[in-house]
Amino acid sequence: LYVVDGVVMPINDLPMGDIESMQVLKDGSAAAIYGSRAANGVVIITTKRGKAGDLKINYKGSVGVQNIANRYEVANREEYQMLVNEATTNANDPRFQIMPANNTSNPLFVKNTDTNWQDEVFKTGKISDHTVNISGGSQTSTFNISMNYFDQTGTVVGKGPKYDRYSISVNSDHTKGKFKFGESVHYTVADQKLMSFVHDGTILGFTVSAIPTIPVYDSKTMDGYGASDKTVDGSYTANVIGFNEMIDSSTKRFRFSGNAYGEYAILKDLKYKLSLSYERTDWRDFHFDPKHNL
User: Fold this and answer.
1) What are the tens digits of pLDDT across the range 35-70?
2) Are 151 and 62 in contact (CB under 8 A)?
3) How many angstroms separate the CA atoms of 210 and 216, rounded?
4) What angle do CA 17, 19, 22 make, to 5 degrees?
5) Phi, psi of 38 (to 5 degrees)
6) Hey, how many other C-beta atoms are within 10 angstroms of the C-beta on 148?
7) Which of 241, 244, 251, 239 lies closest to 294, judged by CA?
8) CA–CA separation, 156 vs 122, rounded Å?
9) Average pLDDT of span 149-164
């Protein structure tokens, strides 16, 4: 369970640069406060707040790239055709015949296509994170405003995965005599393009097992992508790039959370504090699967 500035909420939309401190509750005190939701512990997060002093404007940013470090060694076209033909011959079963795409005497023999699917599917991903922070205040009033933009593009060719997030956080604290009050408000808009695939299994699995005699793109097909034919190739290959470029699947998330408090010092070491919180998340999901021959 995560509690951010007094509000129970997930933290996937919380910029890490906004965090001031974290406290972990694992004993009975967590259950006493949050009930059964705290069975696995509670992480209490406090975001950065303003401090008395001159107005400060800070910028922090980072830009980086991501790559698939290692690749599986797989057979090229000639090696694949040789291995498949040897397996067919060694089976010594009339039900299995050398397929046209792998038969040098057949006009459908494939000799000009040698697709390394890992090289075609994987690309360099990009990641960037930018934060502008404005803070300041006096001895009786302080404020902190944080604006963040985060963007991450995945390492697979196609529409996804891609994640964009815009967020703003505002908080302030005010003191007047024995009374202290303040608020924390967070608003986030996250737009996520999902990596699309319609078959059981994983994109990595189909990428590694895809046969090299199928091209990525084929102008002769209905959708412009290469596809296998069991009567010609003897094997089915899911065109990972075709699925991920044609299918549009995304989700947009709008999250608001806020907390307001009032505190009164009854005695020097005795204070009464009232806190009110609110959290709301709205989702918009979109999925479009065009007609295709994959």
Assistant:
1) 878 888 889 999 999 999 999 999 999 999 999 989
2) no
3) 11
4) 145
5) -95, 20
6) 22
7) 239
8) 5
9) 94
